[in-house]
Design a protein that fits this description.
Blueprint (H helix, E strand, L loop, with lengths): L5 H4 E8 L4 E8 L2 H8 L6 H8 L7 E5 L4 E7 L19 H4 L10
Antiparallel strand pairs: 1-2, 2-4, 3-4
């Protein structure tokens, strides 16, 4: 059986600028079951995001919004937007590792 990812359970996973020094990602989940998985602190938390994006876990901010089935994640950009070493000025590709995060089989029903 193929592995299920967060992207499979979401309507949309996106990333974008949150100013020149922050990136924000949003998981718009299809339904309550998908939201339950994405919002589960034992599955998706600051440490997991920090590992995926090589940032300090203390700098990661997670916002769980059950009324919208949305999880929002923000963390500091590794370099400021538009600087010489910035490889994604609009932060439009940062969502990919999050969307590819595998969901544990017991979470999928």
């Amino acid at each position: 059986m193929p592995e299920t990812t967060l992207g499979d359970l979401a309507i949309e996973v996106r990333s974008k600028n949150a100013g020149p020094f922050w990136i924000t990602m949003e998981l718009f989940m299809q339904d309550d079951d998908g939201y339950r998985i994405a919002a589960d602190e034992t599955y998706l938390n600051e440490d997991i995001v920090a590992e995926l994006y090589r940032v300090d876990p203390a700098s990661v901010q997670l916002f769980r919004i059950p009324s919208l089935n949305v999880v929002k994640i923000s963390y500091p950009r590794p370099v400021s937007q538009g600087s010489l070493r910035d490889r994604d000025v609009h932060a439009g590709q940062h969502h990919v590792p999050l969307a590819q995060l595998v969901v544990p089989q017991q979470g999928v029903q």
